[in-house]
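Attaching the record inline, Q. Sequence:
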Amino acid sequence: MTFAGNALAVTAILWTLILVFAPPVSALRARLNAFIPLVIFSVFAVIFAVRGNYGHPDRTVYTNELQLISGHTLPAAFSLTFQTAREPLYIFFMWVVSNGGVTTEWLYLCVGTVSVLIYLAALLKLVPWWQAPLIWFTTLALGFFTSYESLVARQGLSMTMLFAAVCLILTGARSRWWILLLIAAALMHWSAIPIAVTIALVAFVRVRLRTIVAIWGVFALLFLTGVQERVLGPVAGIIPGLTDYTDPSLNTTYTGGANRRDFLIFSLVVLVFGLIAVRRGAPTQWYPRLMVFYTTLNIYFLLFGFILFSDRLAAYSWTLAPLVLAIPFAYPKSTIGRMGTVGFVIAVIAYGFVRGPFPQMAGITSF
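Structure, as predicted:
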């Protein structure tokens, strides 16, 4: 990253802290001030979508499909044979994109831009503008958003829509809007169907956090013992979206194995952190319900964690992790609280360099 890139990144991070630390009635918390770090972080996100994970096979697959669909009418596009699944909204999206270009860079510029716009629109509906940069920065550091926007285009877009639906539910928005988002997510990637149904059920049927955590614990034990594979193995082979990851031949290209304990540990860390935040006094009225959504969606991963690439199932719950982790630090009311927020930001930066996308981002973002 050039000096200008470094300067922009540091400026956006410091600006984020200033917004959080400013007095409640301060002009520093004006939307215009929050807009600046949001734009800087968004530029980094879109550049990563275009340049990140260059040469990865998934990018080649999607580029080939973009080139295949180019020049066809929309009705003809639905009759083509794709290497990936043929979700209707995915085909429509690719057809629209193909009218502007057929290169990998153009495709992921569109995917990245659309993903960022949906994510920020939902986030700004849920939290005040002055808090949004802290959550957005945490999102980029954890790496789930950047990985999917730069690789698995259709699932990345689907996950962003599901995130937006959860945000609308937490705000109390009319059900027709978030239901449309759930339907759109399912039409973009079939594996989102169980997630969309689960989100709708949790939205309409109030479940106590204590109850869902207990259920999570039971399935975590089944995950550790491998019992869920013996029971649900045949089911995974017939669920749309999961069949892509049950082919034994994938063992030659995926070395992570099944029932990944590192995925379980990360899920548990986020869960425990959220429960502690609730125990100490939820920072927002909707935070406990957020934890219900996170815990419930993570059970989906526990149920089918025996399939290969199970992170692609866990990611549906992990997209909520930035909210779970960042929100408690977005309301510092004392000197100790501000020190905690600074410590959190330092930890997020460290994670972004050790486990997240920051090293690659530093190498590809130049201004």
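The chain has a mean pLDDT of 88. The two ends are 8 Å apart (CA to CA).

More tomorrow.
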